[in-house]
Amino acid sequence: MLKALIFDVDGTLAETEDLHRQAFNRAFGQLGLDWHWTPELYAELLKVMGGKERLLHYIDQEHPAEKRALTARMPEIHDLKTRIYGELIETGPLALRPGVARLIGEARAAGLRLGVATTTTRPNLDRLVAINFPKGDEPFDVIAAGDEAARKKPAPDIFELAVGRLGIDPLEGIAFEDSAAGIRSALDAGLPVLATRSRYTQSHRLDGAFSAVSDLGEPGRPHRHLSGAVWP
Ligand code: XBP
Ligand code: MG
């Protein structure tokens, strides 16, 4: 029996990823680094999940000669990026993707439990929730985020953590994901996956998802079923 829905955050709840990119670039500028991540480069870098891991990968690839010094600066860069991202998301303010609020409301009304399994840093999710849900109306029963899991997606750790906190069997849940790495993570945690590509994951394969849709749909704005989702 279906008992819970577990949502990814970046790209699934909202189109946050370009704000992350802009926040990284502003942090680089404020810290005197002449780095600039274009949308094209960022799409490549997104293959590495987690902002801290992404920074380390970029340093490794592009600045190997200064690797030691730059690696030591990574926490400072990422902390500033998180602060700037928080400001950008509120300035927008960034809305949820179509269908997300409706689905969350209907699931709660039907007695389902709601969880989050995300690579993103917890304050990023808290801000997104604060600007999109009334104060005191916490939509999620369980949140597993960021460094709470030892290994980031595509490892199954963060979905396993969410499933454990919900106290369900994985087959009693459905995971919602926008990325190939996220789908892999949820599948390896034993969850059925519904995929909905986001702006930065248009080229991602959705193998393993039981269904794939252009978005979660609103009345009068029907979603499209996408090809490429194959139940394993
Ligand atoms: C997507 C990510 C995140 C964000 C950045 O996460 O990889 O790392 O790009 O967030 P998900 P941080 O789709 O699992 O929500 O910089 O806070 O890591
Ligand atoms: Mg995502």
From TrEMBL:
InterPro entries: CbbY-like, HAD-like_sf, HAD-SF_hydro_IA, HAD_sf, PGP-like_dom2. Pfam families: Hydrolase. It comes from the Bacteria. SUPFAM superfamilies: HAD-like (SSF56784). This is Protein CbbY. It comes from Methylobacterium thuringiense. The gene is cbbY.
